[in-house]
Amino acid sequence: MFMLGLRDDIVELTAYQKLIGQLIAITTVVVLGDVRFHSFYGFLGIEELPLWFSYVFTVFAIIGLTNAFNLIDGLDGLAGSLSVISFVVLGTWFISVGSVTYGFIAFTYAGAILSFLMYNWHPAKIFMGDTGSLVLGFSLSVMCVKFVEVNGSLPLNSFTFNAPFAAAAAFMIVPLYDTLRVFIKRAKKGKSPMAADKSHVHHFLMRMGFRHDQVAFILGSVKILCILFVFAFHKLPDIVMLPALAFIIVIGGIILDNLTLKRVKEIVRDSPRVLAQRKYFGVRKKVKIDQEIFQNEGANPN
């Protein structure tokens, strides 16, 4: 995965080429490393999974999570902040239940990311690129799979989750929600889901006037609240927790969209000179101004 990201940073690959590379890397880990979902642990009444379905489902899940995390890497410090939260929580949980090896791996990632964030925090001096975001997304996805599997093998007196899939989703909640939200919006407009635009959550927060570091703090706080939510109700099953988590995030997204629209209208109303320029120069000028705003802020439109 590291070599795939490095190649894409040096010589841009097509979406198809990146997908093939990801399939090779992920399938190798899933099959040879036996990193897979062995069971649904009672979710939807399903226990042990057939071997072929276990492989297919795990590969699909890791590819989806890896690319979702890659898409969230649009602002200084954002991807690093979101990943370090998950690695710290996962590391703490793994060590607390006796899986020390996985705990040390998680804390190793967390330490490396914190060192990187010293130079990636806004205004950033260095950037992780696809090399970093793909590796972090892939590693975090694998750790989520191991979390579900370790949780399912623990004795009843341990700190176990009756909703392991909801907990795993909480560790990746911001990239997951953002990717699904963006894909749905693009599909409604008749665009390709992979077409770059400025409809990501972090773009909406920037339109409200927040800086890179403030956006990272806000989305990081949302992630922490979601993780605390699944920890607080860890005895409830996935059939309850997954819809509850989805409902909370969707409602939050709707509120964000409405607040953003309201704020943008206020900015336009309070900026008659800019409004006059847009009216005079037409749509092309409007698009150009929006692009310049995001370029000056250093936001990634993907």
UniProtKB/TrEMBL annotation:
Pfam families: Glycos_transf_4 (PF00953). It comes from Echinicola pacifica. GO terms for cellular component: plasma membrane. It is a multi-pass membrane protein. Keywords: Cell membrane, Magnesium, Membrane, Metal-binding, Transferase, Transmembrane, Transmembrane helix. It is found in: Cell membrane. GO terms for biological process: cell wall macromolecule biosynthetic process; cell wall organization; lipopolysaccharide biosynthetic process. The chain crosses the membrane at residues 20-40, 52-71, 78-95, 101-119, 131-148, 163-184, 215-233, 239-259. This is UDP-N-acetylmuramyl pentapeptide phosphotransferase/UDP-N-acetylglucosamine-1-phosphate transferase. Its cofactor is Mg(2+). InterPro entries: Glycosyl_transferase_4, PNAcMuramoyl-5peptid_Trfase_CS. One of its GO terms (molecular function) is phosphotransferase activity, for other substituted phosphate groups. Mg(2+) binds at N70, D130.
